[in-house]
């Protein structure tokens, strides 16, 4: 060979049927094709390579004989990585989430025991004595606004009385099972009733709460109505409230307040504000409101006449 460099030259690329069998096997497999393309290529290569000595048709690049006459898929390492990267990650176990959602912030057994501490000895109900005991433990007075809101949250049917069902369902709704738990909810309850719709619901509840269900009352006695109006408006008192209550106290013949009058009074306070001159008696107001406005106008005229008389003297 000597100094001849022709043996080091890279031979020009040859046609596929001119390449030795070993060289064709060393080449990397071409990218996957559709099945019909691979079939056509195999048939063509088989016919073109039939004249090559010691050469058998090359199987499709993605398959080889496994010795049993069947074809097995050959997957490269890169394809394996690509395959596993496409597998979506397994979802995390939801057992912790299920346990979190199903767990309770209260114990029904503790709620039942709490009710038993205050219930009457002769019946399964918390009566006035038990209510007073409960209020002492809650560090509130029975006539406080907080107690009214608590009764509203418990859905109490009548004053000075909690049934077991009312007490248990109320504690569940608040998610509490202890005195400290109830105390911790007072601020949230007071904040809740600042919403006009929630306060309206509380206001209407108060009428039914004040009725004597055992006596079959359907009209709230005036004395009780005055007390409940003072209580339910203790956090935000309408400007006209004091004059309204004075009117009721000066007219003892008004023996009771019907539900419609009670409910409409909240609308009345919002409609007139401090200026009764805006009151329209042609609207569908209860007649008691007409009497009240007329009484107030008479009082105003009397005061004006009295002032004029004093000035003239």
Which helices and strands occur, and which strands form pairs?
Blueprint: H1 21-26, H2 35-48, E1 63-65, E2 71-73, H3 77-86, H4 95-102, H5 108-118, E3 125-126, H6 128-138, H7 145-154, E4 162-163, H8 164-174, H9 179-192, H10 196-210, E5 220-221, H11 222-232, H12 241-249, E6 256-257, H13 259-272, H14 287-312
Helix pairs in contact: 5-8, 10-11, 10-13, 11-12
Summarize the biggest pleated sheet.
2 strands, antiparallel
Protein structure class: mainly alpha
**Strand proportion:** under 5%
Low-confidence stretches: 1-26, 39-59, 61-73, 90-102
So how many helices? 14
| Morphology call | elongated
First and last CA, distance? 151 Å
Helical content band: 40-55%
Q: Which H/E pattern describes the elements?
A: HHEEHHHEHHEHHHEHHEHH
Count of DSSP strands? 6
Gyration radius, rounded? 46 Å
Strand order of the largest sheet: 1-2
Integer average pLDDT? 77
């Amino acid at each position: 060979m000597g100094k001849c460099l022709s043996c080091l030259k890279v031979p020009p690329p040859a046609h596929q049927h001119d390449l030795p069998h070993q060289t064709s096997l060393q080449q990397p497999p071409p990218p996957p094709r559709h099945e019909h393309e691979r079939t056509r290529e195999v048939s063509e290569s088989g016919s073109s390579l039939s004249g090559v000595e010691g050469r058998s048709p090359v199987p499709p690049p993605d398959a080889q004989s496994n010795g049993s006459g069947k074809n097995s898929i050959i997957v490269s390492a890169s394809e394996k990585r690509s395959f596993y990267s496409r597998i979506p990650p397994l979802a995390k176990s939801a057992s912790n989430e299920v346990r979190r959602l199903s767990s309770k912030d209260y114990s029904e057994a503790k709620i039942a025991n709490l009710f038993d501490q205050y219930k009457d000895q002769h019946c399964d109900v918390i009566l006035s004595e038990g209510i007073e005991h409960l209020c002492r433990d809650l560090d509130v007075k029975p006539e406080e606004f907080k107690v009214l809101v608590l009764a509203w949250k418990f859905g109490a049917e009548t004053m000075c009385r909690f049934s077991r069902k009312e007490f248990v369902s109320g504690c569940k709704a608040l998610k509490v099972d202890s005195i400290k738990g109830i105390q911790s909810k007072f601020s949230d309850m007071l904040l809740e009733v600042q919403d006009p719709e929630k306060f309206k619901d509380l206001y209407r509840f108060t009428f039914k709460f004040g009725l004597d269900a055992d006596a079959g009352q359907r009209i709230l006695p005036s004395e009780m109505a005055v007390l409940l109006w003072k209580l339910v408006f203790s956090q935000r008192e309408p400007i006209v409230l004091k004059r309204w209550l004075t009117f009721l106290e000066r007219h003892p013949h008004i023996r009771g307040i019907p539900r419609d009058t009670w409910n409409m009074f909240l609308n009345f306070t919002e409609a007139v504000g401090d200026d009764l001159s805006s009151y329209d008696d042609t609207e569908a107001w209860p007649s008691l409101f007409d009497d009240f406005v007329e009484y107030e106008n008479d009082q105003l005229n009397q005061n004006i006449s009295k002032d004029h008389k004093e000035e003239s003297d």
